[in-house]
Design a protein that fits this description.
about 140 residues, mainly alpha, two-stranded antiparallel ribbon, 2 strands, about 5% strand, rod-shaped
Length: about 140
């Protein structure tokens, strides 16, 4: 279904994410395997953000022609971007986990409702039998 798509692309296609902002939306995930793959992609992207930031930081430090102030300014800007991206990925991970818990609660809740309906039917049946016995 979403083969080869990054979590950002998937979330954007579902209307959950636009740019760097995350919006809440109801999403149904069919199985735990897909959810696990999604979580793994998010973790991998988070690692990639850190790796790219480290590489850019090293590149900035290695440039001899930049003044110390310019290097410091570039590093600060890079770190701000890294923090923003990591926060977004962390928020996505939390939302995915929250979604899993909500789905599990819904599943348990629907099972409880089914049991309650079954018990209600049995109670009604028992009352009808008692009423018949009392009339006889």
């Amino acid at each position: 279904m979403n083969e080869g798509k990054s979590p950002d692309e998937i979330m954007k296609s579902m209307g959950i994410m636009s740019g760097n902002t995350v919006t809440e939306k109801e999403v149904f995930v069919e199985d735990h395997e897909k959810m696990r793959e999604f979580e793994e992609r998010l973790a991998k992207e988070k690692e990639e953000i850190q790796f790219k930031a480290k590489a850019e930081r090293e590149m900035i430090y290695s440039q001899a022609n930049l003044k110390e102030e310019e290097k410091k300014k570039l590093i600060e800007e890079l770190e701000k971007q890294e923090v923003v991206k990591e926060k977004a990925k962390t928020k996505q991970q939390k939302l995915v986990k929250k979604l899993q818990k909500m789905k599990e609660k819904m599943l348990v809740g629907s099972q409880v409702i089914e049991v309650a309906k079954k018990q209600q039917k049995e109670l009604k049946k028992t009352r009808m039998q008692l009423a018949k016995e009392q009339q006889q």
